[in-house]
Write a structure and sequence with these properties.
This protein has 397 residues and is an alpha+beta fold. 29% of the residues lie in helices and 23% in strands. Strand 17 and strand 18 form a beta hairpin.
Length: 397
């Protein structure tokens, strides 16, 4: 099975995670893919492959040179777009727009970088679901790297540890990571975007929930009595920073991202995520929400608004800086594979941040995918193949 066939097989499994679920993994369909990957690892010769009770898949390949290195990718896909049925196809791209359906296209106007892929074979969907390159591309590249070393036992390589995690997209990918089953003390997540990117700076991240309590009274006799929670939601939103949103920020700029609002006269709920690379600015963003809720309660009455904020992960930079040889090794691996490496900050998160804070330094590498979490997601066959070569070279270092 070549890597394109492998990737197309993986994306046929629906694996969206669910932040509202309390199970581990959050959706049982992730476990179905995990079982398949466990059996595939065994079939290619990774004899110790196992899926644990939490749906994490582990395996290792004994090295023939000193050292050990790990590779981590996640099996789940984002709940931001439909995950099934994925109808993927491979198109020869010669420039211009790509029509995925009568209604959905990947246009040069919206995504000018697509022209960088002229002459390549792009894997796309029919415009109705995401593709799942985030992060089934990473899974496929790691699996193909493992198969290479199993089939070429004379090729020099360190001991290789692999782990495929569930629930990364909802911030729980490292919750039950079993370090005892992972045969390396340093690793890379393979969970990034454009080919060549190396990331060791990520957002500090938190989630927030604001609950609004109203008082319902018949509208005919509501004067000075009714507290309309739906209108209070509107008032809260009008006081949020209007330019600190994903659509208005880039690079190291942080944001608030409102992803869910529910409201009626009696109650309201606002769910959001908070992101910033700078820890001080991150803490200020959280404090702003606390202050805003306090102010609105002073206007509308105590306990009208309540906020709950939970930290998710922190910027891995300070944990990676003592291990910068990991970054140099990655740069060299890309260069040797004919890819220009570039270090960029992650405008998002990765299992690597959590793992780094728990003692496993774990910067992030590209997969080659583009437009993640979208029905316009795509990846090139050439990127899949080249990234596999990069991982092979990295395991040799």
């Amino acid at each position: 099975m070549n890597i394109t066939e492998r990737f197309l097989k993986y994306v046929s499994f629906p694996t969206a995670s669910d932040e509202f679920s309390e199970t581990v993994p959050s959706t049982s369909k992730q476990r179905v893919l995990g079982e398949y990957l466990t059996e595939e690892l065994k079939s290619i010769g990774v004899t110790d492959a196992v899926m644990d009770e939490y749906g994490y898949v582990y395996g290792s390949i004994k090295g023939n040179i000193d050292g050990a290195v790990g590779f981590v990718a996640h099996m789940d896909t984002s709940p931001d777009a439909p995950d099934s049925p994925v109808k993927a196809s491979v198109v020869e791209y010669n420039g211009g727009d790509i029509a995925l359906s009568d209604e959905v296209s990947i246009t040069v106007k919206e995504f000018p970088f697509i022209e960088n892929y002229k002459g390549q074979r792009l894997i796309v969907t029919d415009g109705k679901t995401l593709l799942g390159a985030d992060d089934k591309a990473g899974v496929a590249e790691i699996m193909s790297m493992c198969e290479y070393f199993i089939n070429n036992p004379e090729a020099p390589h360190k001991t290789i540890a692999v782990c495929f995690t569930p629930d990364e997209e909802i911030g729980r990918g490292a919750d039950h990571f079993n370090y005892g089953l992972f045969a390396a003390k340093e690793a890379y997540t393979v969970d990034g975007g454009t080919l060549g990117e190396i990331e060791y700076e990520n957002f500090n991240a938190a989630s927030a929930r604001v609950d609004i309590n109203g008082v319902i009274i018949h509208p005919g006799s509501a004067k000075n009595k009714m507290k309309n929670a739906a209108l209070y939601v509107q008032e809260f939103m009008s006081m949020m920073p209007q330019n600190e949103i994903p659509a208005a920020t880039e690079g190291y700029e942080g944001f608030y991202h409102i992803h869910d609002i529910k409201a009626n006269e009696t109650e309201g709920e606002i769910r959001m995520i908070i992101r910033d690379h700078d820890r001080e600015k991150f803490e200020s963003k959280k404090q702003f929400l606390v202050n805003l809720v306090s102010y609105l309660n002073s206007v509308h009455g105590e306990d009208t608004f309540k906020v709950e904020i939970k930290d998710s992960y922190y910027n891995m930079k300070e944990k990676i800086e003592p291990f910068m040889y990991l970054i140099e090794n990655a740069k060299n691996a890309f260069s040797e594979a004919g890819v220009t490496p570039v270090t960029v900050p992650i405008r998002g998160g990765t299992d690597g941040a959590r793992l780094s804070y728990e003692g496993l330094p774990c910067p992030n590498l590209s997969t080659g995918g583009e437009n993640f979490h979208s029905v316009r997601e795509f990846i090139s066959v050439e990127s899949l193949e080249k990234m596999t070569e990069v991982l092979i070279r990295l395991a040799e270092k």
